[in-house]
Each structure stands twice: as structure tokens, then as C-alpha cells.
Automatic annotation (TrEMBL):
<keyword id="KW-0460">Magnesium</keyword>
<dbReference type="InterPro" id="IPR004399">
    <property type="entry name" value="HMP/HMP-P_kinase_dom"/>
</dbReference>
<keyword id="KW-0547">Nucleotide-binding</keyword>
<protein>
    <recommendedName>
        <fullName>pyridoxal kinase</fullName>
        <ecNumber>2.7.1.35</ecNumber>
    </recommendedName>
</protein>
<dbReference type="GO" id="GO:0016301">
    <property type="term" value="F:kinase activity"/>
</dbReference>
<dbReference type="InterPro" id="IPR013749">
    <property type="entry name" value="PM/HMP-P_kinase-1"/>
</dbReference>
<feature type="domain" description="Pyridoxamine kinase/Phosphomethylpyrimidine kinase">
    <location>
        <begin position="14"/>
        <end position="261"/>
    </location>
</feature>
<dbReference type="InterPro" id="IPR029056">
    <property type="entry name" value="Ribokinase-like"/>
</dbReference>
<dbReference type="Pfam" id="PF08543">
    <property type="entry name" value="Phos_pyr_kin"/>
</dbReference>
<comment type="similarity">
    <text>Belongs to the ThiD family.</text>
</comment>
<keyword id="KW-0479">Metal-binding</keyword>
<keyword id="KW-0067">ATP-binding</keyword>
<keyword id="KW-0418">Kinase</keyword>
<keyword id="KW-0808">Transferase</keyword>
Length: 270
């Protein structure tokens, strides 16, 4: 079929199914697109150790090989990156985007897993800032990641989020969405969108219980799906906000530690 709309994720595997490549491919399907993937890391969560996340990066050369396979069909309609796992893998992603003249690039600068409070790999965070932000059509940091990328540290208000978005735009990303999510105090889940000249504040009710494991990946994958389908950036972001809200509302409690989103929530109109 020649009218197939193609999407790609370069991300890690979350066997628990809510986040990572699993979230991305499910979301791409919901958007009626054909999903490709290059796996960067395998993440396990240990029920015998308080659900501690162990992250196992794949060899960078193997990520490059996967991307050679994907791009053998030419550039895709839109792509995203998620957890990248090492500086070398960030470089491989950068080269693939440049060499294949890939447009519609969504960078989700994954630095932490929810429930874990250490930056997974500080060098990778710097590499994402320096190598990938200049290639980003949209970058989607959460509150913590936006504080790191902007250098502003802890962000606690919409004004802080706007200042961070401005700084991240200066680093080269064309559009920035700073996600307040559950981390920003208040009754609303607030995200700030900045296109380089105007701010839009996206608001939804804060959903409780927050079955939001995978919400960030799902949001970025939904923006990717929207861009692939030809939506302008601001519409792709607004639709992604509705999509992820429905996914959180339809989420469920997997065990005592984690409640993932359900990526099909939007279709079920929940
Ligand atoms: N409890 C919640 N209720 C409603 N929306 C939420 C909730 N938690 C997160 N979101 C939304 O989900 C999206 C992902 O945000 P967030 O969970 O902060 O990202 P990340 O997974 O990268 O930490 C954002 O649009 C955010 O506002
Ligand atoms: C492979 C992978 N990518 C990304 C994330 C981040 O998930 P979230 O969308 O909840 O921020 C996780 C968290 O567990 C993960 O395992």
C-alpha cells in the first residue's frame, strides 16, 4: 500500500508494557500509522527490590544496524526518540536523523523513570541537549528534565516552565512542551507549549488515581502520530494532550508498585 503513513521510535523496552517502545508502537497503531522501531535498552523492574529499574543498554553498533534496516525504505513521516541509554547511542540517533534527512523529529529527553529519582545517565542528558535538541521539531521534557536542560534547576510554577521553555528553544528545538503533569502542584495537569514566539498553556483535570506510567512516552508518540498524519505542530500537541488524558483515565493498577496508562483509552472514548 503506497498510502501507508510511517512512524519510527528509537527507544527502550519496558516489559511492563506501559512505557518505552511498547507505548510508542501501541500509540502509533492508534493513530493509524505503521510503526518501526530501533531498540536502545532493555529495562527490567524488580518486584523483589521495590520495583527498582535496571537499565541494560544495547551496543550502539546494533542500534545503528537497526536504523539501517528502517531507513532502507527512506525517511519515515515522523519519528521520536525515548530512552537512549548511552552517549554513543545518542550519537547514532543524531547521525541517522542527519544522514537520512529525517524531518518531523520528536525528542522525548528521557532522563528518569517515574518513581526513581536519579538521573539515569548524566552524560547522555548532556549529549541529548547538545546533539539532538538542534534537530528537534518538538522536544517534550517533563518538569525535572526541563530544569536540567534549561539549567534552571527545580521548576515550581507556570512562569518557571515558560522560562525553561524559552531557554530550551534557544538550544535549538523548534517547539518545546514542558510537561507539568503530576509533578506540578495544583488541581490541573498543566503543560506549557512554546513555538518560539507564543506560549499556549494546555490544561486538563489531574486524574486520580494517576495511572500514568508511560504517560510521557505515550504523549510524545501521540505527537509523532499527529505530525506523521500531517497535523500542524500545535494541533498535534493539543490532540496528544487529549489522547494521553484518555490513556491515563483508562489506566489500571498492574501491581502494588505501578499503574500504567492504557494506550487504547482514546478509542474507547474513556
Ligand atoms: N495525573 C495526571 N492527570 C492528568 N494528566 C497527567 C497526569 N500525570 C501526567 N499527566 C499528563 O501526561 C503527560 C505526560 O506527562 P508526565 O507524566 O509529566 O511525563 P513523564 O512521563 O515524561 O514524566 C502530560 O501531558 C501531563 O500533563
Ligand atoms: C524503556 C523506558 N522508556 C521510558 C520510560 C519513561 O516512562 P514514562 O513515560 O512514564 O516517563 C521508562 C520508564 O519505566 C522505560 O522503562
Amino acid at each position: 500500500m503506497s498510502n501507508i503513513v510511517k512512524t519510527l521510535t528509537i527507544a527502550g523496552s519496558d516489559s511492563s508494557g506501559g512505557a518505552g517502545i511498547q507505548a510508542d508502537l501501541k500509540t502509533f497503531e492508534e493513530y493509524g500509522t505503521y510503526g518501526f522501531s530501533a531498540l536502545t535498552t532493555i529495562v527490567t523492574m524488580d518486584p523483589d527490590n521495590g520495583w527498582h529499574h535496571n537499565v541494560y543498554p544495547v551496543e550502539a553498533a546494533l542500534v545503528a544496524e537497526q536504523l539501517k534496516t528502517v531507513f532502507a525504505g527512506g525517511p519515515v513521516d515522523a519519528m521520536k526518540t525515548g530512552m537512549l541509554g548511552s552517549v554513543e547511542i545518542v550519537r547514532v540517533a543524531e547521525q541517522a536523523i542527519k544522514n537520512n534527512h529525517q524531518s518531523n523529529v520528536v525528542i522525548d529527553p528521557v532522563m528518569v523513570c517515574k518513581g526513581e529519582d536519579e538521573v539515569l545517565n548524566p552524560e547522555s542528558a548532556e549529549a541529548i541537549r547538545d546533539l539532538l535538541l538542534p534537530l528537534a521539531t518538538v522536544v517534550t521534557p517533563n518538569l525535572f528534565e526541563a530544569g536540567v536542560l534549561s539549567g534552571l534547576g527545580k521548576l515550581t510554577s507556570i512562569e518557571d516552565m515558560k522560562n525553561a521553555a524559552r531557554k530550551i528553544h534557544e538550544l535549538g528545538a523548534k517547539n518545546v512542551v514542558v510537561k507539568g503533569g503530576k509533578a506540578l502542584d495544583g488541581e490541573k495537569a498543566i503543560d506549557v507549549f512554546f513555538d518560539g514566539s507564543d506560549f499556549t498553556v494546555l490544561e486538563s483535570d489531574k486524574i486520580e488515581p494517576a495511572h500514568n506510567h508511560g504517560a510521557g512516552c505515550t504523549f510524545a508518540a501521540a505527537i509523532t502520530g499527529g505530525l506523521a498524519n500531517g497535523l500542524p505542530v500545535h494541533e498535534a500537541v493539543a490532540k496528544a494532550k487529549d489522547f494521553v488524558s484518555a490513556a491515563i483515565r483508562s489506566g489500571y493498577q498492574f501491581n502494588e508498585y505501578v499503574g500504567p496508562v492504557f494506550h487504547g483509552g482514546y478509542r474507547l472514548n474513556r
